[in-house]
Amino acid sequence: MAPQSLFDKLWRRHVVVEETRERPAVLYVDLHLIHEVTSPQAFTVLRERGLSVHRPDLTFATLDHSTPTLPADEQGRLPYATAQAAAQVETLIGNCEEYNIPLLDMGDPRRGIVHVVGPELGLTQPGKTIVCGDSHTSTHGAFGALAFGIGTTEVGHVLATQCVFQRKPKSMRVTFDGVLPKGVSAKDIALAMIAEIGADGGQGHAIEFAGEAVRALSMEGRMTLCNMSIEAGARFGMVAPDDKTFDWVAGRDLAPSGAAWEAALADWRDLPTDEGAEFDREVTINAATLRPMITYGVSPDAAASVDALAPAPETAAERHAADYMKFDADKPFSENLVNRVFIGSCTNSRLSDLRAAAAVMKGRKVKDGVVTLVVPGSEAIKQAAEAENLHAVFLEAGAEWRLPGCSMCIAMNGDKGKPGELVVSTSNRNFIGRQGKGVRTVLASPATAAASAIEGRIADPRAYLK
Amino acid sequence: MTLNPFHKLTSKTIVLPQENIDTDQIIPARFLTTTSREGLGASVFYDWRYTETGALRNASPLDGFAPEEFKILVGGANFGCGSSREHAPWALVDFGFRAVISSDIADIFKSNALKNGLLPVVVDRKTHNELLRTSGETVTIDLERQTVSFGDGWNAVFEVEPFARRCLLDGVDSLGALLSHMPDIREFEERVR
Ligand code: SF4
Question: Rounded distance, CA A330 to CA A352, Å?
Fold first, then answer.
C-alpha cells in the first residue's frame, strides 16, 4: 500500500460508507462532545422527528460558554448574565437527563471548557474521531485524533446516527524546523503560522503539524497549536501521537486500562504518518527565528512579533482594521496602553499556561487600573493550580482568580470589556466585538499577557525570563 | 423534513464589501443564549446596525428597504469565517436572505448555510469584483445550471457540493439520507467495536 499520512489512516478507519461524486462519506464519530450553546436546537429536531440518541455512551456534555465565573451568592444562586443564559444551561441539563447523556454539571469537580475536559478525563485519545458543535474542536487533534467542529444541524445528525456526512478534505503539512527560542511558546508558533498562510490559508485542508519544534512541545502546547488551526481556516489540525501523548493519556479516569491499554497502545503506534506520504500542500517554518507574537488587527492573521513596529495599513481591509485598533503606524506596539488582560480559554488555560503567566507575575504587581482575569480551563486545573499556590501569585499581583469557563473568550457570560478598551487576551479570536462591543483585542501567549498586565501596555515577556 | 426548494432565484442584492466578515459580526455572541432557531433575524449584524443604546443607525446597507426584495447578500472575501455557530445562517435566513455570494466562503459556514436553505455561491475574483458593484441591482442565481447572471449578460458558473445541491433542489434535508444508512452504521459498529 502507498505510504499513508496520519490523516489518511484516521479517515480510513472511520468511513462507514465511501464518498461518491453524488454524496459525501458517512463518517463514524467515536466521541461527541456537547455544550449548552450549540445543542438545544439539535435536541429540538430529535423531538420533532421522534428520534432518540443513538449512542448516549459516546456522547459527553459539559457546561462552559454561558456559565458565570463568579461564585454563587449566599442563597446558592449563580450570577448568570441573563435569565436566558440560565435557561440555556437548564435546557442542557434537562436534555442530558432525558436522553441519558453523561454531563459535567455545575459543581462537578471535573467540569470545565469542553476542549479542556475531554483530554483531562482521558476521553480524548489517539485514533478517535471527535466532533463538537464548536470550531475549536481541532484542539483534540493534538493527540492524533481526527477532531473537527460541526454546526448544530450536524450535532443533531450525530445524536441521531453517531455519524456525519463529510467529504475528505485536502491535506497539508506544516513543519516547524529547529528549536524554539526561550520565551516563545506554542501560541506564538500558532500566530506565526496563521500570519504566514493567512486566515483562510488552511481552508478545505486538514493540517498535520510536524517537525522538531512540534515534537518538542508539551501536550498542552500541541493542544494550543491544534486549537488555532481553525484561525487559519482549517477545520482539522493534528499532531502524530508519540510517547509523550501516551504518557499523558495513561491512567486518566476514562482512558483504557490493563489489557485494553496495551492493545490501544499497539494500535496507536501505527498512526503516525508513514515515510514518503504525500500531502496536497507543504509549508515549512523555521521555529528558531520566531519571537513572541501578538495580533494588531481584527483577524488572527494580522500578527507580528511583539517587539516590532505597527505596520502601516495598505488595503481597505487593513485600513478598516487599523481605524478600529487605533495603533499608530510605524510606532512600537509597546506604546499602546492596555486596559484589561484575560488569561484563559481553551487555547491557553491549562496548568502550564498558568505557570507561564505566574512566572512573570510572581512578586510583581499588575499595573494600576488594569483589570486582569485569570480563568482556569477546568475545575481540575483550578485545583492543581491552587495546590501549587499559583492563585496566590495572581491574587497578590492584583489579578482576579475566577471559576472555570469560556469567560472573556466569547464574552457571553457577562465577563467582557468596555467599548474602546484594549484587551490583551490569551484566547483565539480578535474579531471586532468578540470580547464586548467596541473592545479592541490583542491575542498573545500567557507570558506576553502577564507581562502586559504588569506594564499596563503591550509588553515583551522575554524581559521577565531569568 | 422538508426545506423550501431552491431552483432559481432572481433578486436584488445587498453588498457588504468588507473582507473576513466573521460569524461574530453576523450574530454577536450575546444573542446565542437562545434555545430556538427562530427570530434571530432581528439581531443580524446587530452591532453594525444599532448604536450602543440600541437605536437603529439606519446607516447600514441592511436597513431602510423591504427585505423581501433583497434576498442575495454579496460579501467580501473569506465570508463567514470564525465561530461555527449555525445561528449565523439562521439569522441571515430569518432576515430574508436565500443566497450569499463571495469569492471565498469559510468551510463551516458553507456547510451550515446549505443545511438551512441558504445557498453559498463562490465565484471567481473577477465576477466577485463586478458583483461588489451591483448594490441594489438584480442578480439571478440558477442552481440547476449553477450559474450567476447579472448586468449586460455577465454570466459565471459556480460549484456546489453535489449532495447539498440535490437536497436544495429537492427541498429535503440531509438527516433523512443519513438515517437511511442506519443499517450500514449498525454493521460498522458490529465490525469495528
Ligand atoms: S474558550 Fe472560547 S473558543 Fe474555547 S470553547 Fe469556549 S468560547 Fe469556544
Answer: 34
Task: Evaluate: CB of A235 within 6 angstroms of ligand 1.
Answer: no
Nine cell digits for residue A435? 470580547
Residue B27's identity, in one-letter code, is: I
Q: Distance between CA atoms of A460 and A369, rounded to whole angstroms? A: 20
Structure-block grid coordinates of residue B186: 449498525
Give residue for cell 454579496. B74
Question: pLDDT digits over A215-243, tens only?
Answer: 999 999 999 999 999 999 999 999 999 99
Residue in chain B closest to A52 (alpha carbons) equals: B179
pLDDT of residue B16: 95
Question: What pLDDT, on a 0 to 100 scale, did the predictor assign at position A46?
Answer: 96
Per-residue pLDDT band for B2 (boundaries 50, 70, 90) equals low
Per the CB < 8 A criterion, the answer to whether A340 and A313 are in contact is: no
Answer yes or no: do A153 and B115 touch at CB < 8 A: yes
Nearest CA among A249, A241, A198, A203 for reference residue A222? A241
What does DSSP say about strands A340-343 and A170-177: parallel, antiparallel, or unpaired? unpaired
Are B94 and B44 contacting, i.e. CB atoms less than 8 angstroms apart? yes
Instruction: Tell me what pLDDT residue B53 has.
Output: 82
Q: Residue A435: which of B41, B24, B80 has the closest Cα?
A: B24
Indicate the pTM of the whole model.
Answer: 0.95
Considering chain A, what is the average pLDDT of its residues?
A: 96
Half-sphere exposure of A438 (CA within 13 A, CB side): 7
What is the distance between the alpha carbons of residues A78 and A44, in angstroms, rounded to a whole number? 26
Kindly provide the ipTM of the predicted complex, given to two decimals: 0.92
Distance CA B15, CA B161 (A): 24
- Give the CA radius of gyration of chain A: 21
Asked if pLDDT for residue B1 goes beyond 70, the answer is no
Instruction: Tell me the mean pLDDT in the region A11-18.
Output: 98
Strand order in the sheet with A163-166: A15-17, A25-28, A163-166
**Residue B182: CB atoms within 10 Å:** 14
The reply to whether residue A203 touches residue B107, judged by beta carbons under 8 angstroms, is: yes
Candidates A43, A153, A347, partner chain B, best to mutate (most B CBs within 10 A):
A153
